[in-house]
Design a protein that fits this description.
single chain; 397 residues; alpha/beta; 8-stranded parallel sheet; 4-stranded antiparallel sheet; 12 helices; globular
Length: 397
Amino acid sequence: MPSAMPSDRTLEQAQILVMLRVGPVHFRPAADYAGNYLAAPDRAARRRIARQLAHEHGLVLLSDWPMPALNVDCFVMQAGSEASIAQLAQALAADPRVESAQPMHLFHVLGRSDPLYPLQPAAARWHLSELHTFTTGKHVVIAELDSGVEVTHPDLQGQIALTRNFVDDGDYKAEAHGTEVAGIIAAREGNGIGIAGIAPDARLLALRACWQPAPADPAAVCSSFTLAKALQFALQSQAQIFNLSLSGPRDRLLERLLDVALAHEVTVVGAWDETSEGGFPATYPGVLAVAGEGADSRLTGVLRAPAQDIPTTMPGASFGFVTGSSFAAAQVSGLVALLRELSPGIHPVQLRAALTSATALGLAPQRPATIDACAAMANAGGRCACGCGTTTLGPRR
């Protein structure tokens, strides 16, 4: 069944996600993303049930995707523009054949273009070149759930472990926001051009779960369904870090997938949306919420990182400067990769504490906490030589 094309935002808002139960015995991992799951004999039966449900409720069945992390198949159904989506979802959820149902939600990325200034904040403030003598994110897998990445960019060539398109059935596309975030996380280091990513040796999974509505529009949009498909893939790929530089309403399907990730000690980094009191997923328990350094000082439990005039990669083999919490979150995802290479067995509680510079320095907690990367290294088990007190950091093995 072809993927639903998310080209019309009004249509997206008139869609419902319907989950039908699947026993875990039907999932057999293989080289293909869904393995034998897609070929399981009872998938045809679930599709028949989905068609029946759609017919009974006056819906059109558009697409489906396996979610073995939750033991469900997820079906997308289109309602008429005048339908009450909330009431339809409630009626479907009450059907004994249905595991759960919810409206489709839309999400948006959190960044914008800014005038160019020759400065890479993390290079100076986080002593990036010194940190890279000890850790570069090697063997750490980061899943970037975003719009498409320009993998042929001269500062990204060889840096992307794989690409996947969860938006539609077309070819993978290079888009602005995904390319910008990818460069901040993992741009090549020491190649004489451009910038150095925070974690240049990490394995970056470029998962296109968002789309750019128009080539001239740098904003990107995602849906519950596209994000859920990408989260399922990231879980199966055993990525240790999920970068979610986006925001939207609370979404039960995505919460359930994040619960699985957090239970497996995946670090989920979310960008803080100041226009909606944080937004989802940044406000979800267990997610590392990251705001810019100019964030409201009254915020609690939110990390701060550079977010103003960040140089990064852009489509067309170019470079530019960007501003927004999307890019603060990307830097923290890279820093987490450095910490996880340094201390592979670090517990999420220890990781969060390591990122709070006040904890590293023995001071009262700051709200929100401004990250001191060197202090974070010391807290994660290293010995710091770049501005976090009297300790020294030994060379990376």
